[in-house]
């Protein structure tokens, strides 16, 4: 193999030498007590939890941990911090509201962990150096600020369980804490396969294989316990390699490799048949998330006007028009609380008004397009907290939206911002263009966040019905401490050399070809197949044709992919994972033989919607060449409060006695 790499474009060599060492064929083994795969918010918190228990921890991340993952560029709020000193609701109340709102296709275990431990993780973050409160008094006197604690609240100003935070400070603070705790950080390393061993009549996780995405070195990680904390799938139905940019809400390299690894290893999944219409797309069709005026999430509850400047009123759940801006942030009479806009317990809005997506209703009432978010009509504090803090901390908004718009003259005290679409989405999509958004499917687990394979735990977006940043942090820390406890009970196992060799051959195969297909072509082919055969309306014949087509891609296209450097090889591995996840989705879709509103699932050959006999979780796993299915009742996790207490008394006692150390 030649020393150094040449980047190739259209089969023509460019005068650019690959700047990193050539370590293809070399191997490095790293041993630790606990292995964390994924360096986003969930993975970092998992590593902190395990390291605090005094165990050796390795954290594997494909990018640079300081800014990697969906939370790397920031976020503006922390949901369900139900134990903060100002909260008027309990973790159980909010968890059960989530479960009802999701029509019981919900993760009661993980949501309760989020609600019960989310504020603890915020206090951790403050200890790490992240900013969680308005200590400088920037918003002193605002209705959403608690003057004693400096905490800022969003959405429900009465019950105060969702906090506004300075999320751009969080990942750098976590990175510093990981360094302080001496966690072994394997950055720029993609995890590609789980390692398992037969033990006691079943499987046990013993580590993972990965590859350095700059040098090509094979990395072998041996561990007593493993936590999967990677991203949810993406680029399944929608992909345009030339127009990704800022239109993608999550990082485009976060594509669900953990799901693919888990599926190949035999982990159980549920709700993988669920998908919703795309809102933020990698297809280059949408505007930058939160870069168009709207009134959802980051922009909640912005005043909306139509093309004539006529204000579109907010109403409460009983249809009473809300006359003032502050009223928008309080429950209606007789309503105890409401969740954030669009996810509402005891619906706040009688008709689908500006806060939701009621286009037809608004047209009937005579409102004229286009709509605008008009912050000039809002109180100063509300205007400044939306344009300045919320827009500026959320996702990728700080530079491309807040700074760029400001530099180009946008002034929220003078100008209004057009809303492309009728709600928070910024483009329209066809029914067959689905994405795994909004509490999607994922790994099935128990109250320890343990999978069906001993020694393998899951957190964050790897879990079914996953949520936002508070969810990721709380479940990550929880999985980390459970994995640490398990690691103390078992001995290390050496990986099977045959398994390592097989994965090495699979990973390196595209580098042995001088000419061939590019990874982008395969990604486009998979996306088109999923649009055509696993779109908005499904049936058995279409799904089987789609599965046959994806299997044909595996046989015919995968052996043709060629790469010229480790970066292209990493992208190729991602698309191989996308192919596996797509097949998992089709298998799950075949298994649910009815339609379902809460799962956004429609089958023309089984039009009956949500029959009682099918109202359960369908759990599936891959075992060799066999697909194994079982059904699990929605209520399998029991009473969320009692079940949590039964397996977390040690944590409860630590917090109660003040012996919990940061």
The structural class is alpha+beta
Main pleated-sheet profile: 7 strands, mixed
Number of helices, counting only DSSP H or I runs of 4 residues or more: 16
Radius of gyration: 24 Å
Q: What is the CA-CA span between the terminal residues?
A: 49 Å
Strand content: 15-25%
Give the overall shape, derived from the CA principal axes.
globular
Q: Could you list the spans in which at least 5 consecutive residues all have pLDDT below 50?
A: 1-15, 341-353
Count the beta strands.
22
Helical content (DSSP H or I, runs of 4+): 25-40%
Mean pLDDT, nearest integer?
90
SSE topology:
Layout: E1 6-9, E2 12-17, E3 27-37, H1 41-52, E4 57-61, E5 77-78, H2 91-101, H3 108-128, E6 152-153, E7 163-164, H4 170-180, E8 184-187, E9 189-199, E10 202-212, E11 218-228, H5 257-265, E12 269-270, E13 276-277, E14 304-305, E15 311-312, H6 359-364, E16 371-373, H7 380-386, H8 390-393, H9 398-407, E17 417-419, E18 434-435, E19 442-443, E20 456-458, H10 469-487, H11 497-508, H12 519-533, H13 540-556, H14 566-591, E21 617-623, E22 626-632, H15 640-647, H16 649-657
Parallel strand pairs: 3-4, 3-11, 4-8, 11-20
Antiparallel strand pairs: 1-2, 5-7, 6-7, 9-10, 10-11, 12-19, 12-21, 13-18, 14-15, 14-16, 16-17, 21-22
Helix pairs in contact: 1-4, 1-10, 2-3, 3-10, 5-14, 12-13, 12-14, 13-14
